[in-house]
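Example 3.2
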Amino acid sequence: MSATSRASHQASASSRVGQRIGADNVPESPDDNTNAGYPPVDMTERAQICVVLPAYNEAENLPAVLSELSEVLAERFERWEVLVIDDGSTDATPQILQELSAAMPQLRFHRQRRNFGKSEGLRTAFELVDADLVALMDADGQDDPREFDKLLAALDDGYDLVTGRRSIRNDRFIKRNTSKLYNWTTSKVSGVEGRDFNSGFKLMRIEVARAVDMYGEMHRYIPPLAEWAGYRSTEVDVNHRERIAGQSKFGKARFWRGFFDLITVKFLTTYETRPFHLIGALGLFSGLAGASLLVWMFIEKLLGNAIGTRPALTIGVLLIVVSVQLISVGLLAELFVNLQRRQRNRS
């Protein structure tokens, strides 16, 4: 990162940082599903960068990861902090974080009541973050924090979100190749260029973190969601290392869950403000198919053929009924969107 750019990042951190509270004074999230521990932080100005690490049973990796990360951040920023989201770990992760926070005043941690998943953890983190820049890293040591310079350079070029693309992945063969298929499908469906959407190594401006809504498996689709919100995203090649210890916490179910969330992302980014274009089109197609079958049956009746037991008659009527229902639902969805827009304009 150039000296001019670094100075601009430092100059922008002029507001007061949010109140830090002790671990015995624990706030709860709005949906009452988390609790947090915040060691006191001696920081009178807003942090320039906050690095978010979602962690689930990473007690073996956290000491080494946080030690390396703190060295890198101290070399590049005057005011920085690390926020670890403990996603209901069942190992010694909470105790490790408590011990590390005593020696690392820039470390904050937030413990979920149970394992809610990465997207929910990021949603919580984005609500707690108070910094100019927000970085995401995995807590297993595979992301190299010394590659931050490449991500910062991309932000200097005018981008709002930068993903660290793992050019050479240190993962299993099946994981690497299924990831290629996933990334290709995501790029085609979302219309956003990218080859490593699911990389956990990202850097973004705080506005992007505030704009994206995390739930389900949406953490895989941060670039498409950011682009849809009007922000610019890109990827840069970064070093990818082997996991320090332990095993990956993601199972096979993540593939089908991710597929359904991709459909959700496509719908939200394309039809959120015009749902009738999708639902109404399906209804129109169903109606045309049903009408065609009924016309055919009518002609058969005129020719003197029996149609009472013909499956085409039943299917035609069913398609017409489905068409009416879909068009009605589409119109109701349009009405709902219109009412939301009016309410937003009034406020």
